[in-house]
Each structure stands twice: as C-alpha cells, then as structure tokens.
Amino acid sequence: MKTTKVSELIDQVRREGRVSLTEAESKSLLSLYGIPVVEEAMVLNEGDAIVQSRRMGFPVVLKGMGSRLTHKTERGLVKVNLKCDDEVQQAFRHIKEAAGEDWEACLIQPLIKGTREFVAGMIRDPQFGPSVMFGLGGIYTEALSDVSFRIAPIDEFQANAMLDDIRACKLLGAFRGEAEVDKKQLVQVLTGLSRLGMDYPEIKEIDINPFIVMPNGSIKAVDALIILADASEIPQGTNLAGDSDHEKEIRVALDTMMHAQSIAVLGATAPRPNFPGIFECVRRFGFSGRLYPVNPKAQDYDGIKFFPSLSSLPEKVDLVILSIPAPLVPDALRECAATGNKNIHIFSAGFKETGEEEGIRLQAEIETIAHEGGLHVVGPNCMGFYVPASRMLTWTDASAESGPVSLVSQSGGNAQDFTHYISSTYGIHFSKCISFGNALTLDSTDFVDYLAHDEETKIITMYLEGVKDGPRLLRQIREISPEKPVILYKSGLTESGARAVSSHTGSMSGGEMIWKSFFKQTGAIPVDSIEEMADVTLAVHHIGATQGRKTTVIGIGGGNGVAVADSCARVGLELPAFSPELTTTLRKSIGIDGSMIRNPIDSVIAFASLPVMGETLELLARSGEIDNFIISMSLDWLTLKKEKSGTYAETIASYLADEGRKHTHGKPLIAVLRQYQPDPAIKECIPLVEKILLAGGIPVYKSLSQAVSALSKVVAYNEFCKRAYTTPDSRDEDRVALA
Amino acid sequence: MKTTKVSELIDQVRREGRVSLTEAESKSLLSLYGIPVVEEAMVLNEGDAIVQSRRMGFPVVLKGMGSRLTHKTERGLVKVNLKCDDEVQQAFRHIKEAAGEDWEACLIQPLIKGTREFVAGMIRDPQFGPSVMFGLGGIYTEALSDVSFRIAPIDEFQANAMLDDIRACKLLGAFRGEAEVDKKQLVQVLTGLSRLGMDYPEIKEIDINPFIVMPNGSIKAVDALIILADASEIPQGTNLAGDSDHEKEIRVALDTMMHAQSIAVLGATAPRPNFPGIFECVRRFGFSGRLYPVNPKAQDYDGIKFFPSLSSLPEKVDLVILSIPAPLVPDALRECAATGNKNIHIFSAGFKETGEEEGIRLQAEIETIAHEGGLHVVGPNCMGFYVPASRMLTWTDASAESGPVSLVSQSGGNAQDFTHYISSTYGIHFSKCISFGNALTLDSTDFVDYLAHDEETKIITMYLEGVKDGPRLLRQIREISPEKPVILYKSGLTESGARAVSSHTGSMSGGEMIWKSFFKQTGAIPVDSIEEMADVTLAVHHIGATQGRKTTVIGIGGGNGVAVADSCARVGLELPAFSPELTTTLRKSIGIDGSMIRNPIDSVIAFASLPVMGETLELLARSGEIDNFIISMSLDWLTLKKEKSGTYAETIASYLADEGRKHTHGKPLIAVLRQYQPDPAIKECIPLVEKILLAGGIPVYKSLSQAVSALSKVVAYNEFCKRAYTTPDSRDEDRVALA
After folding, report:
1. pTM of the predicted model, to two decimals?
2. Which residue of B has its CA nearest to A417?
3. I need a labelling partner for B477 at 20 to 30 A (CA). Which of A607, A666, B189, B444 fits?
C-alpha cells in the first residue's frame, strides 16, 4: 500500500542528509495513513500568523520551527493559548527573537484541549521487526511506562486488544463528564502505524506524543516525530512471502534425519567409565539402522569396526554426528560437503556460546563452510535428536516409548531434563525432540515448520533463548497453535539489553514487552521453568476444550479453604459462590455433618461415600454454575482406611478415573494430592494414586498452586482458540496482508 | 496533640447535623496540622470578589459554595483562570445564577499551576484503624490506583518510604524543567494526616485531591474533604497504652497451659479404629503430668479410670480440653467457671465458622459465659497446643524433639500440616505451637505477646486469616521482629471485602494494600503457602546477617544459565558480572576447559575438584563482589562417580558442610539439588545429601526458584533490621507517640 507521496517525502529528507522528519512532515505523512493530526500552517510573518489564527479559530498555539531547533519548550519557542490577534503578534515576535539565527518559520495550530493524553508509536524490534506501541501519554509516559505492544502487522481485533491492555484503560471510557474515546479512530491510528512499519523499512521509529482526547471523545495527534533508519540498518528482504521450495527442502532433510537409516558418528570412541559418549548412547538405545563409528585413532571394542574417515564409509549417510573438538570441526564439515553428506548434527561445543574470541571466530568459519556446502546443520553445542520410534538418542536413560509431544529446545541440558522429568513424573512420552544449540543454519522456525506438518506431533513444547526470524515464528505459531497447542518456555525475559534509543517509544520497547505481545498474538502458552512446562503439557494433553473460568474445589481436611480462594484469584480463575438453589440441592445430597456447602467444598462425606462424590460432581456439572473441577485429596486422611485392594486413596482414585469423571460431563477434572505427615507408608501410596489417575486421563499435581496455574493456562489457550475460530475474517485478512 | 480549634470545629459540624466539613472548613482544619493549603477567601458579592482577586493576584479560581451543592464542575460552578476584574465579575454572576437557591457564597483562590498532581488521605481500616494514603492524583487516581498506604502512626522515615512506593515516583524528582518536589513538605502532609487520624477518632476519612506541585517544587492542597464518623462508628478506647496487668495475667495463664502438670479432657473416649481421639493423642505422645479423662458415659479401656465430671477430679487442672459436641459446650464452660478451672482449649467445632445461624448463636452464648467467668479460652474449632518439651499434642505423628521455632496458627489443619512438613523435610522442630481457631477470648496478639517473652522461641511463624486488634499486632511485631524474625502466612489477601465508600481514598483502601503496608512497617516476612513458610524458616534458621543482594550461582550441567538470571531478577537479587580482575583470577584457579567464567558459573572442574571449589568460594568471598552463594548441584551428574563412602554428591555435600562453607567467610551459602533422571538410585541419594547439608547448617532446596525466593526474603528482612537499628530515634519517637 505504498504511496508515492510518502516515498517522495522520505527520499527528500534523505537527500537533505537528515535522519528525522520535521514535525510538520511527520504529521503530514501520518495523515496519509489515516491518523488524525491537528490542523496546522506554516507562517513566515506576523500578518500571516494572524490570518491563519482567525481562520482556525482562537485560541491557537505558535511554535518556532527550524531544523537546528531543539528543546523548544525550554527555550521559550512554544506559546500556547493565544486568544486574540495581539497575543499572536507578540508571541510571533518573542519566538523569532528567542530562536535567533536558527529560526526558519512558525507553525500555527488551533489549541487542542482535553484532559486525557495518550501516546502511540512504532519501533523496530531486533528480533520481530516493526512493532506498534500504545500507552498513557503526557508526563506519565516516562513516569509510569503504562504501555502495550503488538508485533506488526496487526488487525483491528489486535489493535482493540492493545487498548484493553494498558492499566489506565478506564480512561478510554466515558470519564468525568467527557465522552468515551473514539476507539474506531484509535484503532485506525494503530493499524495505520502497523502498515507504515510494514510498508517502509526506511522508517526506524514513529513517536506520536501526545494524542489528545477532546471532550467529545475524538482524538488528535498534537506532536509527532518520524526517524529514518541509516542505510545500513534497513532490514533486507524480510522474505515475508516465504520461500516454499527452500522450506520444503529443509522439511525433507529433517525428515531424513529424524528417520535416519544410517548414521555416522565422527569422534566415536569406546565408552569410558561413567561417560558412554555419543556413539555408545546411540548404540545402547538400539538404533535399528546402520551405525558407523568414525575415528582414525579409536581402539576397537565389543567387536566394533571403526572407520578412518567419512569417505571410507560404504554409503552416504542420512545423518552425520560430529563429536570432535571444536578446532577440528571446520575440516570435518569440509569433508561432509566433499562426500555429499549434507545432514549434520554438531554436538561439539566451544563456539560462539563461550563468548571468547576464538570460539566466535570458529563459528563464523563453519557458518561459511556450511552455507557454501549447502549443509543442513543442527547445532553446534547441542544434543541433536531424540526420536524414540527411530531409536535415536544421544544421551542415556530416556524413555523408549513414543508419545504425542515434540520438543524444540535451544539447550541440550533442558532437552534431557525436560524429557526425563515429564516421562518419569507424568508418563508422557515424545514423538520428536530436537536440541539445536547455536543454530548455525537451522533455527527453531525450521523445526517448528517440520513439526507443524508432522502428523505424529499433537503438542509442541519449546525452550527458546532467542530466535533469528521473529516474524516467521510469529506467523507459524499463530497458524499452528489453534490446532496444535504450543507451550513455550522463553528464558532471558528479564534481561533488558541496553539499546541506544532516540525517543520515548524506543526507550520503552525491549525484549520482555515484545515477547509478552508474542504470546498474546500467537496463543503460545507461556511457562517459566521445565517443571511448569511439564505441568502445563500434562493439562493440555488430558483436558480438551474448556468452557470457562468458573471453578470448584472439593477437598477434605487441612486449613486450605481461604488459600484455595487466594490461589484461584491469583491466576484469574473464578471460585463462584453457589446459587441458593444449588446449595440446597447439594446439602440434600451431601448432608451437613462435617461438610461446608460452600465453594471450596470441604466435605468428609463426599470422600467417604463414592456415590455421594459422584452425585456431587453430577449436580455441579449440570447446574451450569461450574466449568472446571479440582479434587484436593489429603492423603494424610485418605490412607487411614485400608481396603482389600490397597489404601482408600487408591479406591477413590480408581473411582474418579473411571465412574467419577463421567459425572463431570466432559468438563475438566484435575486432582491434587496433599501429603504432609512423615509416615513413609503414606508417601509410598503417592505413585500408586498418581498412576491410577493419570491412566484415567486425570491430570494430578502435588500442589494446588500448580493445578490452578496449569488449568488457568489451558483455559486461556482455549479462549484464544475460540477467538481464532470465530474471527476467520481477521485472520484471512492478515494472511492477505502477509502474502 | 489535640487542639481546641479542631474539636470546636468538629463539634459545630455535628451540631449542624452535617457528616462532612465544607471544603473551606476542611482546608482550615488541615492547615492547623501543617498541611499547605491554597489561600482562599469567601466572598458574598462581586465587589468583594474583585478586591480579593486583586489581593491574591490574577489569575484566580472562583467556586460556588453551599451545603447542598454537589457535582460543582458538571453544574458549571467552578470557573478557572480568571485573568482580570471583568472575568471575575462575569464568573461570579454565572455561578450565582447556575446554583440558584442552593448558592450560599463564592470561594476565591489564586490559580495554582503545575503539571504534577498527587492525592493524599486518611481512612480507617476495620482491622488496623487510621491509615495514611498517598498516590498519583488528578484523573489518574481512579484510572491507575497508583497509591501506597501506611498504618498510622507513621514517622518521617515511613512517610518518605511511602513516596518511594508509588510506581510514578519518578514524578517526584526534577521533571521536565520543573524542580524536585519538596519532599519535606509532602512528609509533613503525611505525618500530619497520621496525627489527625490518631488524635480524632471522630474523623472517618480525609481526602486531599489534588495536591498540585508548582514548578518550584512546593505543593498546595487545592481541594479537600473531611468526613466525620457516625457516633456509632467512632472507635471506642483503642487501649493504646496497653493494659499491662491484663497482659501479664494472660501470659501467666498461657505459661501454665503450655507447661501443664495436669490436663482434663472432657469428652474423652476409647480410641476408635483410625481415629484415636484427643485424649488418646495426648496420652500416646507421653504427657508426663496427670491426665484425667472425663466422660460420664465412656467405657473403660487399657485400665484407664474415667471421671464423670470436672467436679469429681481430685484437683483443679492446668488445662481443660473440651472435645464434646458444640451444643454441650455452654454447660461445660459453666462447669469450668464453677470449679475454678479457668484455662480451656475448646477443640469442638460447630460455631461461627459454619456460617450457620445456630453456630453463630452458640458462639455468642459461650463468649458471654467465658467473659463472665473470666475464662482463658483457646478456640473453639482448633487443635490447641503442641509443646514437645511438655509432651503435649492433640494429633498424631508429630516430632517429639524440641526446636527454636514457635507457631501461631488460626487453622488447626495448617498447624498439623506445617509442623509435619518442616520437621520431616528440613529437620526443624518446635518449641510451642498454638492453633487458636475462632479466637473466643484469646487472639493471635495474646500468643505473640507470650512468645515475645519466651526465651526458647527464636523464630515465630504465623498463619492468620484476620486479627481482632490490628494496631496491637502491628506494634508487637515491629518491636519483636528485629530480634525474633516473624514469618507470616496471611491468607485471604486477594478477597476485597465490599465496603461502602464515599471518596477516592476510601475506594482504594481495602485489605490487601493495608496488609502489604503491615509487612513493610513491621519487618514480618510475607509467605504465601505452608511450603514457602517452611522454605523461609529454613533460610532464616541457618542464615545469620546478610550483607547485600549480590549473588553468585555455581552450577554444573543443565541449560539453566539464563534461567538463573531470570529467577534472581524476579525476586530482586543481583547476579552481577564479575570484574575483569576477578574473572582473570578465577580463570587461573578454575582453568577454562568446560567452564564458563561468568556469573552464573558453570564449571565441571569446580565440582570435580574440592580444592578448586574451595578456592573459588574463597576468591569470590574475598573479592567483595559477592554477598551470597548458591551451589546448584545436578545430582544426575554428581552421582555418576561412586566413592567408597557413597556417591560423589555426598562427598561434595560433606565438603561444603564442613570445609567449604568456611571459605564463604560467613556469607550465606545455599544449596539446590537438581534431579531429573528417572534412575531411582539417583533419587535415593537426595535425602542423604540433604541430611549432610542441613547438618552443616546449609539450607537446601529442590529448585532454584525456591532458593532465590527464600534468600531474597532473608535479605529483605536483614535490610529492615538494619534500618530498625540505625534509626533508633524514629522508633523511640513512635514509642512516645504510642504511650
């Protein structure tokens, strides 16, 4: 949607050697994109100033203009609230005198009055490119940083969501006798900024501060600044359309690697005590294809024949794993290229991640080799692939079972820890795991693209520190997440990289806020640790669609009634009071002795009698007052009674896993196991109870806060999906805009 | 510091049947307390208005006044920026006309110009009484709720802290060419409001909105409202001086109960399967005094002789425990009073906590009986006492060991869970635990008073839902906490009780913000769950004084480097980069292969060689760049190597617990155990490693986030203590003010 006028204006500013547009130029450019700016006129003498003032209507504002003029307010070059010819004339003289040689003209505007001021802008995030900002304006912009961001392009729905995001959003409604802000106009501003950011990579930053809201609710941009990028900063070919041939090539390469029939391990050795080495790990996991150890110096063991080099192998292999010292990697890659072995996992560390000069140099060297040789490289500094179905693994003790979850992890340690943890804690297994480290040629987006097309992957989990092509990741995950939930552990969020900034918009951007927008825009589920990623994966895996936030907790013993309310409130779940009708019905069913017929329900009887538990669930589910169920099981109490088949806790678990869960009519049912007594016999029943519940598809957690946090994230994800499905137009529009 | 003038003014308003002071009255009262208010004059005719305007200097503001006038701005009764005689005259006419019959006079003020506006006020919190508020003013008060509270009385130090508390505190500094706000003046306002709140229980609310900051930094209250309390609302005898005889009597009674030589259990029965009953619990724990089961209907067991009634006992007992149905409690209490048995624990539930009419009635009945009989009652609806040294316990399986921690818990369930959990998890034991339920006559403050005087209690832990005498709790904990740390789990913080409010100040008060102030003012350490209370108690128990927030993490394996930085940043700990000198020194000691000489340090070598670990700690401790040490032990790695004496993890733990911790020179050393691999052998070594570390006085946690959170709270507590000790004057002043 580029316009000739804008391009001409930008060219002219460049020709004049300026890096920013004047206020007048900035506003005229913005108005071309539908942004309401205050009327204004340039005047060169007192007479014109008076004529223009009369035309606009008093009171007016007069400002001194000049390319060398800065700090206008401090220098007395801005005169406001001029009410008559005389005042305009005097102001003109003062300004001209104060500006001296730097004076070029005066700008005249009608005075815009309004108590509410906002700010809007556009910045370029180093990872995600053009991003739109909206927030509280005036003196509060700096003092409060009450702003929200969205990565461009944004549609009207997203622009509206930005407005609701700021803490001061109350000010957008009718306020103290002034009308509600014209949201349509505001949305037009934000989508206009988005389009400007997408259309003109030459524009580095736009800062509109303030927007004044007039008493009738309409808005005007009163001051604006547009800064251009240095030629060197202008993003090159953002490749928005996507290179589908290249994407396809990478998908095929990844598919070959993940279903490798042949693997060569360079640097293979006999296992040392406690350190089996990569080759032995792959072998022990039972890789079913042809496995070639390559090492000219290795000693034979276990009857294994070592090969001296890649070229001595009887075939080109589907995957080469480099497990050799970093300084030897360049030559090894050259050999890969020469022998036509293009699919490579570099396990070796000692590159850019060291932060040391030599490591950085080595990485640059192998990057060149990889690009020139057309190699597909996973790594360096990573664990590569774990694919149970292909019997591929580069570490030890992982589950041999396949499952619905896939993992893309920048860290090898986290890949091992997460897969170990979720398999052994929750019995959830994996389809494909890729640990990709320094991302020499293949980055997270390549793996996400592969997994998006992979039918065996139902849930995508990710650990990321950064991403090379942010806009691509945004598009991918927004596309995928309504069908395949994406659970993303993004670390480094609190690090605010120091950045040179030239305006308010710039100073308030920065990693954390942009990533927060990313989650809102894509529906990716944010988690903050490996343990939380496992908790949420468990909930996503077992809970289907959710209907809302209204939650009940049924528990026994412990003084945790108030704590339940606190925990729910902290994560945004509702714990509604039951209606009088429902309370009466429940009282009839549960009885009263030792039971609190409130939400949370504290009832010994519901736990003592399985039919009562079932009826309680049934009544609650059918009341329409409850969307989600949490059963808080105090094992200290529920193990007192012994049954033939084990503890009573196991009896309850079996009931919930089978008959009980039917009574919730598909609404989520989650269990929490509370256990505090030191008796080891009670602790021992925990894994038994967990196993029964998990086998019945009931997520089970060790604390209420874990349970409500995981549940609230699944509910929020479902809300995103619902919006995504019910606003197909806006999504289609986006796709068009991206095409 | 009451003044006759203020009392007279209040009396006059009451006589006139008004509930609030006029704007002019409010401001004149405030100015008596040192609060700068805008100059003003009441005028009854145009001539006077012009005379006063000239005297004050143009521009001025004119407002219509009248006891029936509300919504002045909307009705056009406020005219600002009047610049000359004519404008004043016209404004006067307009206002008089618009107000019609309700007009009584006009108020005239000089126009106060300033871009920064604040709000201040005083409210009465139902639990804590007069509380002072400060925040962002103007239209942003409602929209942003950027306010801070302190419970009165406050001194200058606390008033200053309030200013730093608001998010927009930047606006208090020099800002856009305007001077720094005169903080001395602001502090005078806040302490003045505090004194007004303390001096006049008749004043219900004060609302000053806005305070305008003039360009030179000085402030003026431009609008103010003072609301009086209904006669029924005026707090009666707040008992600030403390009734030391009564306090002493209760301390003696509690001491008798906690060191009881004789206990009678009313409602004692033979144990049933799985439910031993209170009597049997006390007996099994080995109570060493004389234990009397009282129950006319009970059957003998185990050769135990039952008594039919209290009066049939051979002596008055130190403690009577009532374990009988709620409806029988009133008669039992009457018998206690009649037999001179004054120390009572009512275990029975079924009172106010049910929320049912009958329960509420029963509680009112027993309250009367208790007060008339001068009974000291713990409960009802609680577990009473757990005192290991006296062999007193009303539940099962508690530790028989004594320790330095005492607990005051409103919930019996939480008392059991917390004591079980911390004893079995961290090997920390108790001196005295009191679960007090519905607080019929004895409340948390009585127990805190006792524990404050108890030499065996070194750390006080508390679980509270509410408190009867908030001001007393505030004074107590502020006094105690610098000597005995108080760790407080306050639940119900997110419940914002609906309250009738009549001004901005009122609408923004409410439980959560007042409790937050409570923590800041007392140094009590806030926690949000039983588990966190245990984590923090562990840290407080083992860590002495801390020096600052600069922390280092030494770890091995796992992709948690970035996560460490995130975790520290979230709780306000610093993870500083090492100086080049320290980096060089460390590199020499640790070497480079496989180690990252950064903070966090990821070093296999430091773990592989104990002398290197020791030297690393020594170098860091002596560098002055680090205040706190966290050792993150990956058991998945550290158990690979087997030693004669067990796993290598145990060897490292033993080293740290003995030699290693000496190298930190008294700076806190905390361990984190990471364990993800499913191998049960690795899991099994966790309790062994924990035991070694705990025995060596090293707190040990299962996750980094637990460790940094607990550490950050101990650091914040030490910062509070340091301030408390270094500002003795301000504390003494408070004491005088309270006396």
Report:
1. 0.90
2. B676
3. B189
Task: Specify burial of residue B311 (Cβ count, 10 A radius: 0-12, 13-18, 19+).
Answer: exposed
The DSSP symbol for A464 reads E
Rg of chain B over all Cα atoms, to the nearest angstrom:
32
CB B227 within 8 A of CB B204: yes
Q: Respond yes or no on whether the N-terminal peptide bond of residue B210 is cis (omega within 30° of 0).
A: yes
Minimum CA–CA partner of A410 in chain B: B559
Check CB contact of B421 with chain A, cutoff 8 Å: yes
A115 lies within 8 A of chain B by CB: yes
**Is A559 in Cβ contact with B463 (below 8 Å)?**
yes
Helix, strand, coil percent content, chain B, rounded in steps of 5: 45, 20, 35
Determine the straight-line distance between the first and last CA of chain B, rounded to whole angstroms.
13
- Interchain pair A414, B175: CB under 8 A: no
SS (HEC) of B16-47: CCCCECCHHHHHHHHHHCCCCECCCEEECCHH
Considering only residues B3 and B410, tell me which one the structure prediction assigns the higher pLDDT. Answer: B410
Q: Which amino acid is present at B697?
A: G
Task: Tell me the chain A residues in contact with residue B415 when contact means C-beta distances shorter than 8 Å.
Answer: 559
Q: Residues for chain B: how many in total? A: 739
> Are A560 and B413 in contact (CB < 8 Å)?
yes
Contact with chain A for residue B589, Cβ under 8 A: no
Alpha helices in A600-658 (DSSP H): 604-608, 610-623, 635-638, 648-655
CA distances, B145 to each of A139, A437, B451 (Å): 17, 44, 38
Q: What is the pLDDT of residue A566?
A: 81
Q: Is A726 exposed, middle or buried (0-12, 13-18, 19+ CB in 10 A)?
A: exposed
- Write out residues 546-585 of A within 8 Å (CB-CB) of B: 557-560, 562-563, 565-566, 569-570
**Residues A654, A673 contacting (CB under 8 angstroms):** no
Contact B139 A115 (CB under 8 A): yes
Residues 6+ apart with CB under 8 A from B644: none
Give the gap in angstroms from C-alpha A591 to the nearest C-alpha of chain B: 14
Report how far Cα A533 is from the mean position of its chain's Cα atoms.
13
Q: Does A71 lie at the interface with B, CB-CB under 8 angstroms?
A: no
Q: Closest partner residue to B143 among A168, A423, A560, by Cβ?
A: A168
What are the percentages of helix, strand and coil residues in chain A, rounded to 5? 45, 20, 35
Distances (CA, A) of B415 to B335, B412, B464, B528: 29, 5, 11, 15
Q: Closest Cα of chain B to A89: distance in Å? A: 20
Q: Which of B122, B131, B123, B196 is nearest to B516 (CA)?
A: B131
Walking along chain A (739 residues) 10 residues at a time, the average pLDDT comes out as 82 90 90 92 92 93 85 82 92 92 91 90 91 88 86 94 92 89 96 95 93 93 91 62 81 97 96 87 94 92 92 96 96 97 95 85 96 96 96 94 97 93 96 95 96 97 91 95 95 47 34 89 95 97 94 76 81 91 89 73 85 95 96 86 80 95 96 89 90 96 94 97 69 40
pLDDT over threshold 70, residue B456? yes
The widest CA-to-CA distance across chain B, in whole angstroms, is 104
ipTM, 2 dp:
0.88
User: Residue B23 has which token pair?
Assistant: 């704007």
**pLDDT for position B366:** 97
pLDDT, mean of residues B270-282:
89
User: Which residues of B are less than 8 Å from A465 in CB distance?
Assistant: 562
* Chain A interface includes B681 (CB < 8 A): no
Residues 618-647 of B with CB under 8 A from A: 636, 640-641
Contacts of B416 in chain A (CB under 8 A): 636, 676
What are the φ and ψ backbone dihedral angles of B148, each rounded to 5 degrees?
-130, 150
Answer yes or no: do A465 and B562 touch at CB < 8 A: yes
